[in-house]
Amino acid sequence: MELLTSNTLQGTWSTILLPLDKSENINWGGIESQLNAFAEAKVNGIYFNGTAGEFFSQTDEEFLRLATTVADFCHKRNIAFQIGATHPQATDTLKRIKETHHLSPGAFQVILPEWSPLNWEELRRFLERVIAAAHPIPIVIYNPPYAQKILQPEEWSEIATAFPALIGIKVAGGDATWHEAMHEAAEKLSVFVAGIRLASGIIKGCARGSYSNLACLSPKGAVQWGRRIFTDPDLALQQEDEITRVFERAIVPFREKFSNSALDKALAAAGGWAELSPSTRWPLASIPSSDIQNIATQFREGLPFLFEENNSVE
Known about the structure:
Blueprint: E1 11-15, H1 28-41, E2 45-48, H2 60-77, E3 81-84, H3 90-100, E4 107-111, H4 120-134, E5 139-142, H5 153-162, E6 166-170, H6 176-186, E7 190-192, H7 198-203, E8 209-211, H8 213-217, H9 219-231, H10 233-250, H11 260-271, H12 289-302
């Protein structure tokens, strides 16, 4: 796999969610179902083992099998992919990188250690070891919106200057002021924002793409909308407003009670594009299956352009 750069890392990326049976074992057929759907949708890339993939609940054996399955699929079809190497223990993050290095991902994606907000020296020490273990494969940092330390635009610029092997970041995004402040960092990094904010992030800001929560709902619809940003930006911005309103009605009421993993799985179950249930692994709570049909109805009635049968992704 060709290594990604800050220039080639762009577009709509989809994440593997962890499909579970009633005993909370991984349904490996559900992994294949997702991969085939992503290939059909022609996403710009596939990644796995972020929070949506419940990286914190996998055994070493499951992680290695998942990494090998995704890598083999993507290499055969020439689809860019990233390996999420994060582990609750920093030393095991290094282990995951070393054990999957031979799979040749386009990049490794990591989350900064969470047990204590890192100061600058600690952050440098962490990244130095991660980058050394991954070399020559580049690094992407995911800074979740609930992280203990939310890095600011000037900090991203400083980190990008200090660590050229860092090619991209996954962040929640922000308003026009945030995007303006991010321009210096965006000259060195590929900035990925939340999927539902991709149009304004690209058109009015400095975003290059998204590890898309919108693709959890509809990979094909998210890809088409991502392309519309460039062919019909006015319509894409109008549709972003519609997307935001429906997400607020259908998903926001669940945010206080459920994790992001549960929310993403509920979106995928509502989208109905792969073999997925809304179930999450213990101890996370799952959004009840009885709520999924209502969520699906709200999205299909409110955002029909994401579900049109004749969606073209050519």
